[in-house]
Amino acid sequence: MSGCYSVPQTGRSTLHLVPSQQLAAMATTQFGQLKQETPISQDPTYNAMLRRVGERIAYAVGNDLPNAQWEFVVFDDDSQINAFAMPGGKVAVYTGIFEVAKTDADLAVVVGHEIAHVVAGHGNERMTQQMLAAGGALYIRYGTESLSSSERNMLLAVYGIGSSVGVLLPYSRLHESEADKIGLLYSAKAGYDPQVALDFWQRMQAQSGNSPPEFLSTHPSDETRMRKLQQYIPIALQAYHNR
User: Fold this and answer.
1) 50-to-39, 173, 194 alpha-carbon distances in Å
2) Which residues are catalytic?
3) Which residues of 12-30 are buried (b: 16+ CB within 10 A; e: fewer)?
4) pLDDT tens-place string over residues 44-97
5) Is residue 120 predicted with pLDDT exceeding 90?
6) Most buried among 14, 31, 127, 186, by the most CB within 10 A?
7) Residue 106 and residue 91: Cα distance in Å, rounded?
């Protein structure tokens, strides 16, 4: 058990039950498998752009992600407008992202956001929540043996809906907003103007099409994200000018 964790840059306290070294080792294995199974782009422009932006943001992250073994990979798939980062400093983008990220500053927004998820330990937090939710389900299953099977099944169904909509999804939206804030700070400290974030996320949202209602989504609504970004940008601008 790793216990309590304080998120860098925000100070939010959370619970991590999985050792960070274990997660990093798992991520290294999974990333290696992904590189074997997915074509890697040979485009020199894309690779240079990611490496340039990634290294600057990694420098800005500093000790917020200790013992990171940074690796930046461009996967060759134009259909995926996506990027991700994994524990231990493994960062990847798909070639489709360059349809939206036209400049280094654009790419810094998305790379900073994905690295922020790792620094904040969001994956560990989600795993911990799911472990605790599973424990609650087991308690209901074995702690209500005096009830009929139909009553127990109803309780389990209600518990499942409640834990998902009431706990797991809101935390997912919290993680997205937190990654926006932390990622914006990292990109600003790396020397990229945080004001480009609004235009970048608007272009990303235009690619996503219709979204589910916010209370059933793992991401904030477009309106919520834009409103919060407008709150974060002055803070990031201060970091940008003080670097």
Assistant:
1) 16, 27, 18
2) 114
3) eebbbebebeebbeebbee
4) 999 999 999 999 999 999 999 999 999 999 999 999 999 999 999 999 999 999
5) yes
6) 186
7) 16
